[in-house]
Amino acid sequence: MEILQIVIIGIVGTILSISLKKESPQFSLFIGLTTGILIFLFAAEYLKRVIQILSQLAGSAGVNSGYMDIVLKIIGISYIARFGTELCKDAGEGAIASKVDLAGKIFIAVTGAPVILALMEMIQHFI
Amino acid sequence: MDINIVFQIAAAGILIAVLNQVLIRAGREEQAMMTTLAGLVVVLYWVIQYISKLFETVQTLFNL
Predict the structure, then answer these.
(1) Where does the chain cross the membrane (chain B) (predicted)?
(2) ipTM
(3) B11 — phi, psi (to 5°)?
């Protein structure tokens, strides 16, 4: 089972990161970052399958593909923003983490704006 | 699924920490600082390749 590999990699990365925390904190952050990237690259294959299934479902349900793209874009932005935020928080830099989080929220709001506008028009159309 | 990059970074970290202590004991604090920085740059070079791979994957996956 692949999940076993992922758990093992996570545990090994955590142990190495903690063991280096005292002497050289920079390297423990590098190890945390690399382990996170490895696990994501491993899971990306399955994520691709999930996204294909989702878009097929959306297509068959007649959802406008533009909205599906926006949903995927928002998921991507939120994932990367969270990746950066958690990393900065691990390193103890709470201020930088909150700024990254703020920027992520702003980009999500900007990406999602067309959907909200379309909704408003639809509502005005009914009233 | 090459986990040896994590082991490489851990080995580099331990090596740099030990080298740092040795140089400090030998009274050369500046060289100790320089070796730490050099080690950081090398590891950063390795990690940057993984970060770019991550961003490529995310871009292709979510077509950002």
Answers:
(1) 6-24, 36-55
(2) 0.86
(3) -60, -45
